[in-house]
Amino acid sequence: MSRILTFLMVLIMAFAPLQVMANESAEAEEGPPGPQFVPVGPLTVPILRDGRIFQYVTVAVKLETKDSADATQITNRLPSLNDAYLSSLYGAFYAGRDMNGSLIDLEKLRTRLASANAKVLPPDIVQNILIQQVSQSSR
Fold first, then answer.
1. What pTM did the predictor assign?
2. Ranges of each domain in the chain
């Protein structure tokens, strides 16, 4: 009887690390807890004036989500999101709209990006839009 108990104890001790490793790999697949940041861009958009390219604007943002599951959803939709951003920004900068003089109006830019997010992503998936880079260069 003691041989059987000893054998069972050895089996339990041998398989216990495998269970711990399985739990750790499941946690690694889910990603770290807490807010996640998904980079989008940089995207370059022309500013047109009088039918000609006046400037180029380069925009890079990070989208804040509440967890890694939402970050994965955004990552899976990045091609569509990039297209929505380009379409929205091209319309914003055409003929100088959404500009403050010769500079980009950042609040209007953020509003345009949020509108593009709403077209492509599920509601309430993006917690915040962090504008990382906005650069303007003359042609």
1. 0.68
2. 1-30, 36-138
**Integer CA distances (angstroms), 22 to 5, 15, 16, 29, 101, in order:** 26, 11, 10, 11, 58
End-to-end alpha-carbon separation of the chain, Å? 87
User: pLDDT by residue for the chain (139 residues), tens digit each?
Assistant: 666 656 656 556 666 565 544 455 444 456 667 788 888 888 888 877 777 777 888 889 998 898 888 888 888 888 888 888 888 887 776 655 555 556 777 888 888 889 888 998 888 888 888 888 888 887 6
Residues 6 or more apart whose Cβ sits within 8 Å of residue 117: 63, 81, 84, 125, 126, 129
Fold of 36-138: Tetrahydropterin Synthase; Chain A (3.30.479)
CA–CA separation, 105 and 83 (whole Å): 21
